[in-house]
What we know:
Elements (H helix, E strand, L loop, with lengths): L12 E5 L5 E5 L3 E6 L3 E3 L9 E5 L2 E6 L1 H4 L9 E8 L6 E8 L1 E6 L18 E7 L2 E6 L1 H4 L2
Parallel strand pairs: 6-8
Antiparallel strand pairs: 1-2, 1-9, 3-7, 4-5, 5-6, 7-8, 10-11
Amino acid sequence: MAIRKLGALPPNAWLLDFGTSLRAAVGTRVLLQILDAPKLHEVPCTPAWCHSVLSWQGRLLPVMDMAVCLGEAPQERRLVAIAGYQDRPGGTLHFGALLLAAPPQAIAVGDAQSCALPETFPAEFAISCFDHEGAAIPVLHLARIFS
C-alpha cells in the first residue's frame, strides 16, 4: 500500500481562530454549523468566558469565549460555531457554541504532527496537540470546556 502525503489527505480537522493568535482545533464531524452575528442572550451572574446563550434548534446553548477563558480580551466579532460532542463514547450528544474571530479552516492532520501542549493552554481543555505550520495547536476537549 502506498503512503500518501499529508497534503493529499482529505481534511480531518477544523482550525479555529479565537483572535490574538489563539488557535485550537476540533474534528471535522464536531462542527455542525457556523452562524454570523446571531442574537446572543446575556445570562446574569455567569463567568465572563461564558456569559451568554444562543437559541439554536429549540435548545439554549452555552456560548464559550475561549479568548477570555485563556486570559485575552473578549471577542469583537460574533461569528459562532455550533459544536456537537459526547461526554463519553456512546454517550448522549450535547451541543455548545464557540465564539470565533474568523471562519474555521479545514486542514489535514496526521500522527506525525503530534507535539507538546503549549504551557499557556490549560491541559484540562485539550485532548492532544499537533504542530501546524510551526505552531502548536491544541485539540479541544469540548466535554470539559462546556462542563
